């Protein structure tokens, strides 16, 4: 049976933090080349349809924690706080794996980015699942702790913003369309990256609810990974659409 090794959790979390800083350094000035930022003259040779690519990329983040839970003997069902936290993580990735891809209307996805995305989802799925299933220790009343309740509320708020923003983005295109349009409604009224803002809020909420180094490292990685992308989306809209609302911010309402 697998055991908890705190040193392994610390090492994997530290690597995740380092990867976050690497992402920030790579993509703060130049966006990752997919979607609206894909260079037309040098498209990657291998690409998969967006629906298939998103399904394959997100699947490990759901399967790996589920597998770790299945391998634990006896199964860990207590305390309730630990069970709920693991369910939150899997709930997000159930949506991202089995629901979101089948409605997305994005452009074909580069195989190279898909490969690295899958590697990350395996890595992070293992880290979060391993910590929660084999290492985390919460008091029986953790569900009433202010960290859990406030983190859970942030998580649900962020997930709601993320899902709603995805819906608004899908409605911009008719089936078969690949042109980009100005997002309207919801939090897009205030920020260009409403979907990214929602996901960042979601994972910082998760980090507060778990109050753990792995979750905070993942939240920091999310911020460093999709924060710059929201910034580049904002610049793209301003450059492409002369009627783009000048009052909108890139990521955080009224701030950035």
TrEMBL record:
Reactions mediated catalytically: 5alpha-pregnane-3,20-dione + NADP(+) = progesterone + NADPH + H(+); 17beta-hydroxy-5alpha-androstan-3-one + NADP(+) = testosterone + NADPH + H(+); a 3-oxo-5alpha-steroid + NADP(+) = a 3-oxo-Delta(4)-steroid + NADPH + H(+)
Topology relative to the membrane: Multi-pass membrane protein
Keyword field contains Repressor: no
This enzyme's EC code(s): 1.3.1.22
Primary enzyme class: oxidoreductase
GO cellular component: endoplasmic reticulum membrane
Domain 3-oxo-5-alpha-steroid 4-dehydrogenase C-terminal residues, every copy: 108-256
Major subcellular location class: endoplasmic reticulum
Compartment list: Endoplasmic reticulum membrane; Microsome membrane
UniProt keyword Endoplasmic reticulum present: yes
GO biological process: androgen biosynthetic process; cell differentiation; sex differentiation
Keywords: Differentiation, Endoplasmic reticulum, Lipid metabolism, Membrane, Microsome, NADP, Oxidoreductase, Sexual differentiation, Transmembrane, Transmembrane helix
GO molecular function: 3-oxo-5-alpha-steroid 4-dehydrogenase (NADP+) activity
PROSITE patterns per UniProt: S5A_REDUCTASE
Residue spans crossing the bilayer: 7-28, 109-134, 146-165, 203-226
Pfam family, one: Steroid_dh
Protein function: Converts testosterone (T) into 5-alpha-dihydrotestosterone (DHT) and progesterone or corticosterone into their corresponding 5-alpha-3-oxosteroids. It plays a central role in sexual differentiation and androgen physiology.
PANTHER family, per database record: 3-OXO-5-ALPHA-STEROID 4-DEHYDROGENASE, 3-OXO-5-ALPHA-STEROID 4-DEHYDROGENASE 2
Family membership noted in the UniProt record: Belongs to the steroid 5-alpha reductase family.
Protein name according to UniProt: 3-oxo-5-alpha-steroid 4-dehydrogenase 2
The organism of origin for this protein: Sakesphorus luctuosus
Gene designation: Srd5a2
